Amino acid sequence: MRELLIATRNEGKMPEIRHALEGVPFKIIDINNAPALEGFEPHESGSTYEENALIKAKEYGTRARMLTLADDSGVEVDALGGAPGLQSARYAPGTDADRNRKLLGVLKEVPDERRGARFVSVIAIFEPTSGKTRTSRSEVYGRITREPRMERPFGYDPIFLYNEAGKTGGEMTLEEKDKWSHRGRALAKAREILLKEFA
User: Fold this and answer.
1) Hey, which residues are catalytic here?
2) Which fold has domain 2-198?
3) Which of 78, 83, 110, 196 has the fewest CB atoms within 10 Å, counting from its CB?
4) Beta-sheet strands, E only, within 7-115
5) Domain map (residue ranges) of the chain
6) Per-residue pLDDT tens for 69-128?
7) pLDDT of residue 137
8) By three-state DSSP, how is residue 63 classified?
């Protein structure tokens, strides 16, 4: 069975990716189980989610000599002109909870009708032998809540209320995230690409 490296060290993303790719004819390899990648981190110098996802997929994939899937994602808040965007993972030092606290603090005086936001996710696939790359993208819309609502705290999930689902990402099951979330939808497209072009 062909190996597929999942190029993330984010422990919150891994269960979502594994769940979305369940049943594909690939052996999923966790980046932490790839000795060639120990201590290696690519520099995300891109100016778009696509560029950063491809940087990760290419650099990890080239080093591990393995078909590789990587993602880049962010939350863009209307009242902040699209921030934190590409800087979402680096918006504040510390934990996801620290970043949530900072964003809620910045938006403290912003009324509910101006708290609109979108979540963006781009998945990149890279095959080192051929140099072939593919990407998939999804955007979903919602708003930033006034306090965290969660059972599964990860990223900005506890404070992003999805318009279509009527709940935050922190309140969703993995099945619901497959259906409604930015990453779930981008992964569904990536799954089709994997089956059609790389299996």
Assistant:
1) 72
2) Maf protein (3.90.950)
3) 196
4) 26-30, 68-77
5) 2-198
6) 999 999 999 999 999 999 999 999 999 999 999 999 999 999 999 999 999 999 999 999
7) 98
8) helix
